[in-house]
Sequence to fold (215 residues):
Amino acid sequence: MKHVIIGNGPAGLVAAETLRRLQPDAEIALIGDESEPPYSRMAIPYFLIGKIADSGTHLRKSHDHFAKERIHLIEGRVVKVDAKEKQVEFASGERLPYDRLLVATGSQPLLPKVAGMDLPNVHTCWTIEDARAIAAKAAPGARVLQIGAGFIGCIIMEALAARGVKLTVVEMGDRMVPRMMTAKAGNMIRRWVESKGVAVHVNAGVTAITQKAVR
Ligand SMILES: Cc1cc2nc3c(=O)[nH]c(=O)nc-3n(C[C@H](O)[C@H](O)[C@H](O)COP(=O)(O)OP(=O)(O)OC[C@H]3O[C@@H](n4cnc5c(N)ncnc54)[C@H](O)[C@@H]3O)c2cc1C
Fold:
């Protein structure tokens, strides 16, 4: 049996290890399109704070883990699944056959459809590559504006505040963490965050991002 898993985040990785336990003789290929060993996005805030190096985000720490488990790690972006031929196709044009296919490709940040999202110094904070770019710029005193104060936004906010940046957070909802917190709880979080020196604007939908000329 040849198992192919697209996506080497926590879901894909645990699926691969579970399959190995259940089927000692199966062939297992685990595909990811980031140039990193399988890692946890959940560890990114600790990387941003500087508590861990990027290797600390790796889901499995021993260098020979995947060889020992006989899980074949493949770096590449799958662009097509040919279910009829039972093959996946990579951006390079190469194909890989499978008996069983698991798609565990995770999700992506939801980008507001506003002008200026592609300007320099505008980042998402989703991948370790994003986090490296942010860490390189978020020096003490740097002015940072964060769009979004949801659950993940608040975790990132805490990490940025710990880096000593001058932080402003804008949230289109009427409170912080609007999808998880009541008005009372959201406003308590807001007061606490403001007491730490973070400026918070709620009911504030961003309509455009512009770049100020630096003289
Ligand atoms: C900063 C941050 C903090 C977070 N903190 C928490 C937390 O505290 N608690 C919590 O529960 N969740 C947290 N999350 C969310 C959590 O990280 C995700 O829910 C989790 O990563 C989902 O795992 P996954 O394996 O499904 O997908 P992912 O981790 O996204 O992995 C999927 C992988 O598949 C790859 N891929 C996608 N498409 C293709 C393709 N076509 N070809 C090849 N590879 C492909 C992706 O590049 C990625 O590497 C956080 C997320 C972030 C960004």
Remarks:
- The chain has a mean pLDDT of 96.
- The beta strands are 2-6, 27-32, 71-75, 78-82, 87-90, 95-97, 100-103, 143-147, 166-170, 199-201.
- The helical segments are 10-22, 44-49, 65-69, 128-137, 151-162, 183-195.
- The chain has six helices and ten strands.
